[in-house]
Amino acid sequence: MSTVPTLDEVKQELANLDAAVTAPTVFMKEVVSLLHTRMTKYNWVGFYMIEQQPSGEPVLVLGPFQGAMTPHTRIPLNQGICGAAASTGKTVIVDDVSKDSRYLACSVETKSEIVVPIFVKGKVVGELDIDSHFAAAFKDEDRDLVEFCAKLVGKHLDTLST
Ligand code: SME
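^ inputs. structure came back:
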């Protein structure tokens, strides 16, 4: 498919995946692939999931992703845009990463970023992180789409914990 899809079409494709895929890890890989392929301004798409370190401190660990390899495979919750989203439980959108002192660089081409927390039973368990080579790439409808994805992933992960 080479045409640029509407956000509603992408949402429908996500809903189809939601109904078809049962294993959460497979679902997460498919979400990454769909967003990276279909949303042309989403140049790096990946998950970070919270794990407990032996010290008891939580850390964000890189999960399924597509795009350039990142040096940030483990991010403490007090670092980066990623840490900010996980520790506050709130979506973070940065229109110009060069102006945000929290930003941890993955690629010199990245201009803007969105990070959306994923909840299971009211607790943040990870997040969906997307970088764009375009400044201010993430508008209200992108926020809506990425939050929709994060909710679906949370629902799939919740089936593991019951
Ligand atoms: N930019 C993120 C780090 C992850 S890479 O973008 C993949 C941050 O500031 O937390």
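The CA atoms of residues 52 and 58 lie 4 Å apart. Residues 140-160 form the longest helix (21 residues).
thumbs up if we can close this ticket
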